[in-house]
Design goal:
single chain, alpha+beta, Lipocalin, eleven-stranded antiparallel β-sheet, 3 helices, 11 strands
Length: 182
């Protein structure tokens, strides 16, 4: 087999769905986008009526940090990291003084079946020990380059569902840093 073909095959094998997804996120680095609430549990007002902004603020070789602002609340940051088997999603929650909230660093690792456009993250052991009722949580991130970014949560076996869609066709000025940012 010619050397060029071997190199091409190795490069294609390394470009897995999680790696392609990662590249989609990296392409958004430094940019902020406004979103809208598409789905929420009946009676839940956490995000309703609030301005929702995501800012792909920090991209390094193995970590992408995306602060998620809900109105004036800058306590939330989605942290995506590379792992040996794919990607990991964690939720970093902070108080205004920068200290960690008691409910922080929950999330999970990507599961099989990820695509370049959509990855699911079922709750990991840390999440289950921290928030027992979240044991069936599955977070989903979707990226449709040039169109939309989606953050979603479902609690399997229940009606608990959140879905927020961000418009990637219109970048907005970056918001203030999230609470606790360096």
């Amino acid at each position: 087999m010619p050397m060029l073909m071997v190199v091409a095959l190795l490069a294609a094998a390394a470009d897995t769905a999680p790696e392609q997804f990662w590249k989609h996120l990296e392409a958004l680095c430094g940019r902020a986008f406004e979103g809208r609430l598409v789905d929420a549990p009946p009676g839940d007002t956490t995000f309703a009526g609030q301005r929702l902004v995501m800012h792909v603020r920090e991209c390094t070789g193995d970590t992408i940090r995306i602060p998620f602002h809900v109105g004036e609340n800058r306590s939330r940051t989605w942290v995506i990291t590379r792992t040996a088997g794919g990607l990991r999603l964690k939720h970093d929650h902070r108080h205004e003084d920068g200290s960690e909230d008691t409910l922080t660093q929950y999330g999970g690792d990507s599961r099989a079946g990820a695509t370049a456009a959509k990855i699911e993250f079922p709750a990991d052991a840390h999440t289950i020990s921290l928030i027992p009722e979240a044991k069936t949580n599955v977070w989903t991130l979707e990226v449709e380059p040039g169109a939309r970014f989606v953050y979603a949560l479902r609690r399997e076996g229940t009606e608990r569902r959140f879905r927020i869609e961000f418009d990637l066709t219109r970048a907005i000025p970056p918001p203030p840093a999230p609470w606790g940012a360096r």
